[in-house]
């Protein structure tokens, strides 16, 4: 018995040594080993999807197969064929994209079917299948539909493109509207009054759509300015101190700025922060600049063009509608807790940058979230809700930008260092958000998904450390590599883990200016997208009708 006990002790000691080599030593090895291994294996499977190596505690590959997970998305859900052409093209060509997030098997089969009003000799997808494996990938396929000789102006139809693996089938539909003349011999070259009317109605519906902006991320995208998670733990800091100074105005801007500084600095100190005077001075000074620019006057008056909405995705599926639908933007619209970046982002667009079209900031955010665990396409527990926020607006507006503020939660994962894979996960998330936005916007809004502006709000001063720094660097590296993406720095704002009201007022204005810079930047569309989407192309024209 004694020798057996001794052997067991040696085995445990050996295991402890192995664990120590990998930085996972635990004082309760015999009790916690199984649970810890399971947790690390689960983390490893997350890394399969984010491009990292999947390993367990003993640095051995995990053999369990990842679940089947893929999507197919065509570039736009509606295309216009033959605009201003006397002769219709013989076929239409469209690009679709298959994204696999780690499907196990031999291949994904591809097929298409067009409605009889459009299809002549057939519909073809090239290639007809894609070889797959464990690693995530993105593949483009080409869909060609032969037009019927009898297709005439005003004809409408649908092309259904399907991708299948085992019993799992995903599809994406493309609606086609024929606007040129028919190709059949002896067909009348003059459009009917009915067809002209339908085109006019189509143009009117396009002109009436609104601009849409998606705001997503964790708690500093939610915006905790008045609730229990704010720096003061209540609404007094904003409603009883900051806002009354702005509402009162006065002829002495220097006195106003002094009053703002005194209130802000007192609150930073009360929050037990490392709050140098320089931070409070900056917050007061930049808030006063916004006031002098007319962006913080009449705060109780809602914007004329700008609206906002806010939902929180739920673990069980669906969302909690915190704002109660879309509302005119004002500080107490409940599009945050009570407001976040959307307030001055919207006020800057409408009051300073000459926004002429009605618009809505669509906020889908949840505190304490990680980019891969919660938001990554096809895997994250909140991805479906985020995508639904995009596709549910189809036909109601055009997506004009994506604003992302998240990253501090990557510091706290005790099972894996997710800061190491943050850049790849951010890249994948933005790519799929753009895909969904492109498809949900009207044809002609963008020539390719790469044109859609993105603003990444870099995490601020808190919480510091190596992981914090790697996330910040990943965010900066992404925006440096994407011509249509801009970085907004926030490390000079409040050092409390949740930004205070002045920090959100300043941050929203910075985001608006970054968005304007991203909007003005140019990018070359991929060759396939440019061929398909160019208004001068003889096959397909995606100009607005």
Core attributes:
545 residues, alpha/beta, eight-stranded mixed beta sheet, five-stranded mixed beta sheet, 14 helices, 17 strands, 36% helix, globular, disordered C terminus
Task: Tell me what you see in this structure.
Helix 5 packs antiparallel against helix 6. Helix content is 36%, strand content 21%. It has 545 residues and is of the alpha/beta class. The chain is built from 14 helices and 17 strands.
In percent terms, what proportion of residues is strand? 15-25%
Count of helical segments?
Answer: 14
Task: Indicate the low-confidence ranges by residue numbers.
Answer: 1-9, 11-68, 82-86, 181-206, 529-545
Kindly report the oligomeric state of this protein. Answer: single chain
Give the number of DSSP strands: 17
Q: Compute the CA-based radius of gyration.
A: 27 Å
- Classify the secondary structure makeup into a structural class: alpha/beta
Instruction: Report how far the terminal alpha carbons are from each other.
Output: 87 Å
The amount of helix comes to: 25-40%
Overall residue-averaged pLDDT value:
77
**Main sheet characteristics:** 8 strands, mixed
Strands, helices and their partners?
Blueprint: H1 2-21, H2 29-50, E1 70-74, E2 78-81, E3 91-100, E4 107-114, E5 119-126, E6 129-131, E7 137-147, E8 156-165, E9 168-178, H3 193-207, E10 210-217, H4 219-222, H5 236-248, H6 253-270, H7 277-292, E11 306-313, E12 319-321, E13 327-328, H8 342-351, E14 359-365, H9 371-375, H10 383-391, E15 397-405, H11 422-440, E16 454-457, H12 466-481, E17 485-488, H13 501-520, H14 527-533
């Amino acid at each position: 018995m004694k020798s057996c006990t001794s052997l067991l002790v040696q085995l445990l000691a050996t295991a402890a040594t192995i664990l120590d080599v990998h930085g996972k030593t635990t004082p309760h090895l015999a009790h916690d080993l199984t649970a810890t291994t399971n947790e690390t294996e689960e983390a490893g499977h997350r890394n399969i999807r984010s491009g990292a190596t999947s390993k367990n505690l003993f640095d051995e590959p995990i053999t369990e197969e990842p679940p089947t997970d893929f999507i197919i998305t065509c570039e736009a859900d509606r295309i216009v064929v033959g605009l201003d052409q006397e002769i219709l093209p013989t076929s239409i060509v469209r690009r679709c994209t298959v994204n696999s997030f780690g499907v196990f098997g031999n291949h994904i089969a591809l097929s298409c079917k067009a409605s009889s009003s459009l299809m002549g000799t057939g519909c073809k997808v090239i290639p007809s299948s894609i070889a797959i494996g464990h690693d995530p990938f993105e593949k483009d396929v080409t869909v060609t539909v032969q037009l019927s000789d009898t297709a005439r102006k005003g004809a409408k139809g649908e092309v259904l493109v399907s991708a299948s693996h085992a019993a799992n089938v995903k599809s994406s539909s493309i609606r086609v509207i024929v606007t040129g003349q028919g190709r059949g011999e002896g067909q009348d070259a003059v459009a009917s009054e009915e067809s002209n009317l339908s085109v006019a109605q189509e143009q009117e519906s396009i002109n009436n759509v609104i601009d849409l902006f998606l705001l997503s991320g964790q708690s500093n995208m939610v915006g905790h300015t008045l609730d229990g998670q704010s720096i003061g733990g209540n609404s007094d800091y904003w409603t009883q101190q900051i806002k009354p100074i702005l509402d009162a105005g006065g002829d002495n801007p220097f006195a106003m700025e002094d009053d703002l500084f005194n209130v802000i600095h007192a609150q930073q100190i009360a929050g037990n922060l490392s709050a140098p005077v320089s931070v409070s001075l900056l917050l007061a000074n930049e808030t006063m600049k916004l006031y002098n620019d007319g962006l913080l006057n009449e705060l109780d008056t809602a914007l004329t063009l700008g609206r906002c909405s806010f939902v929180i995705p739920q673990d069980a599926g669906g969302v909690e509608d915190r704002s109660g639908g879309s509302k005119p933007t004002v500080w107490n619209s409940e599009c945050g807790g009570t407001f976040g970046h959307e307030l001055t982002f919207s006020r800057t667009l409408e009051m300073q940058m000459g926004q002429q079209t009605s618009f809505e900031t669509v906020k889908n955010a949840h505190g304490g979230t990680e980019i891969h665990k919660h938001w990554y396409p096809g895997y994250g527990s909140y991805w479906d809700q985020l995508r639904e926020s995009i596709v549910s607006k189809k036909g109601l507006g055009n997506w004009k930008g994506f604003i992302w503020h998240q990253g501090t939660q990557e510091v706290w994962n005790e099972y894996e260092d997710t800061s190491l894979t943050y850049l790849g996960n951010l890249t994948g998330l933005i790519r799929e958000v753009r895909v969904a936005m492109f498809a949900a916007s009207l044809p002609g809004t963008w020539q390719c998904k790469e044109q859609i502006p993105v603003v990444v709000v870099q995490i601020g001063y808190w919480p510091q450390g190596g992981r914090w720094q790697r996330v910040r660097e990943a965010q900066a590296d992404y925006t440096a590599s994407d011509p249509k993406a801009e970085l907004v720095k926030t490390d000079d704002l409040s050092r409390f883990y949740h930004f205070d009201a002045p920090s959100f007022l300043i941050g929203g204005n910075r985001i608006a200016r970054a968005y304007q810079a991203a909007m003005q930047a140019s990018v070359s569309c991929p060759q396939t997208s440019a061929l398909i989407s160019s208004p001068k192309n003889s096959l397909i024209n995606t100009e607005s009708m």
